[in-house]
């Protein structure tokens, strides 16, 4: 039975063991000692609307209220599956007031579903504060699993993913970014990173400089969507290809970096003789990229990533 915009707790299955999840109600109590509502954290498709689960649709139809990162985007999913439940916006800039409203809704004994634009909420998406606050009150937080860009990227990468870690979006600059890159370079687990299209070339170059140009990686774009693309190769080659326009810089990106091994090349250990021998040719390569229209800073970044040479040395005129 579909629920509209009403707030009848029975329609949401607020009693123990009822409702779409079959999960017992939380130990928290709402108004007049009634069981408190449950917070359903619902995964939605990351691109292809056909990837939603039966259980997710059932939950979204039967809860009395859905908190969505962007109600306009969520209505597309709702229209596809004839979901008429009332939507309210809840995103990173909603402020404390909306969070308190949603907590009060749960305290009153009514269930709530939380969704984001795509994928699983709380994974590089808003909602963590709400879930933490409700769990701290003893409320039930019920996961409704489904699509995840992290897992999709790992599967599509072609790299060993028996052990892996997720970094989300890296810091844009500074020491924190360098530290994170260094940890990724030495980690014996594969690593998944999210990145904005415009920053993909720079991030690939930085990863190559930190982990070695020969470290394997995969650049995953628009997973599950019409223009899905996975480009695999050594980090140095991927950085050069992205900077030269060989990778379309549009859409949603996830980068998967191969795990470090005992034989992974260490950066910054070249002897002075090796560096001196390689520098002239590298500077010629930088000059060629600049003559082709690339900015000097970007040309130096690309060549440093491929060769492992120091950027500051490459900046100097030969």
Description:
This protein has three domains: 9-147, 3-Layer(aba) Sandwich (Cobalt-precorrin-4 Transmethylase, domain 1), CATH 3.40.1010.10; 150-257, Tetrapyrrole methylase, C-terminal domain (Methyltransferase, Cobalt-precorrin-4 Transmethylase, Domain 2, 2-Layer Sandwich), CATH 3.30.950; 272-315, no CATH class. The longest helix is centred in the C-terminal third of the chain and has 20 residues, at 272-291. It is elongated. The protein has helices at 54-62, 71-80, 96-107, 128-136, 149-157, 174-186, 200-211, 235-243, 272-291, 296-307, 311-315, and strands at 38-42, 65-68, 86-89, 112-115, 140-144, 164-169, 190-195, 216-221, 229-234, 253-257. Helix 3 crosses helix 4. Helix 2 (71-80) links the parallel strand 2 and strand 3. Helix content is 38%, strand content 16%. Strands 3-2-4-1-5 form a five-stranded parallel sheet, sandwiched between helices. The protein is built from eleven helices and ten strands. The chain has 318 residues and is α/β, with parallel strands linked by helices.
Domain module tally? 3
Uncertain ranges: 1-18, 266-271
What kind of sheet is the major sheet? 5 strands, parallel
What would CATH call the homologous superfamily of the largest domain?
Answer: Tetrapyrrole methylase, N-terminal domain
**Backbone shape:** elongated
Approximately what portion of the residues adopt beta-strand conformation? 15-25%
Radius of gyration: 24 Å
CATH class of the largest domain: Alpha Beta
- Mean pLDDT, all residues: 84
Number of helices: 11
What is the topology, as strand order, of the major beta sheet?
3-2-4-1-5
CATH topology of the largest domain: Cobalt-precorrin-4 Transmethylase, domain 1
- Going by helix content, strand content and strand pairing, the class is alpha/beta
Distance between the termini: 75 Å
Q: What is the CATH-assigned architecture of the largest domain?
A: 3-Layer(aba) Sandwich
Task: Give me the strand/helix succession.
Answer: EHEHEHEHEHEHEHEEHEHHH
Helicity level:
25-40%
């Amino acid at each position: 039975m579909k629920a509209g915009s009403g707030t009848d707790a029975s329609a949401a299955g607020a009693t123990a063991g009822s409702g779409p999840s079959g999960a017992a109600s939380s130990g928290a109590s709402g108004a007049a000692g009634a069981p408190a509502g449950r917070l359903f954290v619902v995964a939605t498709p990351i691109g292809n609307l056909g990837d939603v689960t039966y259980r997710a649709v059932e939950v979204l139809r039967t809860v009395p209220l859905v908190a969505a990162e962007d109600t306009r985007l969520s209505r597309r999913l709702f229209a596809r599956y004839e979901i008429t439940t009332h939507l309210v916006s809840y995103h990173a800039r909603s402020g404390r007031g909306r969070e308190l409203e949603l907590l009060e809704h749960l305290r009153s004994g009514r269930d709530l579903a939380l969704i984001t634009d795509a994928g699983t909420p709380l994974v590089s998406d808003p909602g963590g504060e709400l879930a933490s606050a409700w769990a701290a009150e003893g409320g039930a937080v019920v996961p409704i699993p489904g699509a995840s860009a992290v897992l999709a990227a790992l599967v599509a990468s072609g790299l060993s993913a028996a052990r892996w870690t997720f970094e989300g979006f890296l810091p844009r600059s500074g020491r924190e970014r360098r530290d994170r890159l260094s940890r990724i370079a030495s980690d014996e687990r594969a690593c998944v990173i999210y990145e904005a299209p415009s920053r993909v070339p720079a991030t690939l170059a930085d990863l190559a400089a930190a982990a070695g140009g020969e470290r394997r990686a995969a650049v995953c774009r628009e997973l599950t969507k019409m223009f899905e693309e996975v480009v695999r190769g050594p980090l140095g080659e991927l950085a050069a290809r992205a900077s030269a326009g060989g990778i379309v810089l549009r859409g949603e990106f996830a980068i998967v970096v191969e795990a470090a091994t005992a034989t992974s090349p260490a950066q910054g250990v070249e002897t002075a003789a090796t560096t001196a021998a390689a520098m002239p040719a590298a500077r010629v390569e930088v000059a060629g990229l600049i003559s082709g229209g690339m900015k000097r800073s970007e040309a130096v970044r690309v060549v440093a990533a491929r060769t492992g040479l120091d950027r500051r040395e490459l900046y100097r005129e030969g």
